[in-house]
Design brief:
With 150 residues, the protein is of the alpha/beta class. 43% of the residues lie in helices and 17% in strands. It has helices spanning 2-13, 38-41, 48-60, 78-86, 98-103, 113-117, 132-147, and strands at 20-24, 30-35, 69-74, 91-96, 125-127. The chain has a 5-stranded mixed β-sheet. Strand 3, helix 4 and strand 4 (91-96) form a beta-alpha-beta unit. It is globular and about 35 Å long. It starts with a helix and ends with a helix.
């Protein structure tokens, strides 16, 4: 998660939203790490999770990422959870919860990954709270800068 947080900070410095994600092996070897690219690409689908999945697939020359982990600074949105499932990733570790993301004025479309994952044909294990303080601080600090409070 530390490399994901670092990549997120790089993205924020470039004007991106404060989210990052990475794809890792079971043993923790990093395959790909990315930050959000929504602002720079004018693409609302360029979330960090989607970008990291694309980079990992290219790196491995394979669209099937079964057996790998996705690590994200925030609980994945429904679009990202769908991409995670389509890539065959079965385990996700994340920092900030959907409620923290909502409080920082980033939407979740009214459904959390935890709720949505229960309805998928292939279950995705979600482990929240990984470096939660650091990941939540990225969101809260970004919100404060946007509103002029900090």
């Amino acid at each position: 998660m530390k490399s994901v947080v670092s990549k997120t900070i790089e993205g924020v410095a470039m004007g991106e939203h404060p989210f990052g994600a990475g794809v890792f092996t079971e043993t923790g070897k990093q395959i790909a790490v990315a930050h959000n690219q929504v602002v720079s690409t004018c693409d609302p689908t360029a979330h960090a999770e989607v970008v990291a999945i694309g980079k990992a697939s290219k790196e491995l020359g394979e669209p099937d990422l079964s057996g790998l982990w996705l690590v994200s600074t925030g609980e994945p949105c429904p679009m990202c959870l769908a991409a995670i499932g389509m890539a065959g990733i079965e385990r996700v570790a994340y920092g900030a919860s959907a409620s923290t993301i909502e409080k920082a004025n980033f939407g979740t479309l009214g459904v959390t990954a935890s709720e949505l994952s229960q309805h998928l044909s292939s279950p995705i294990e979600l482990i929240g709270g990984v470096l939660e303080y650091d990941c939540s601080a990225l969101l809260i600090n970004h919100r404060n800068k946007e509103s002029g409070d900090g």
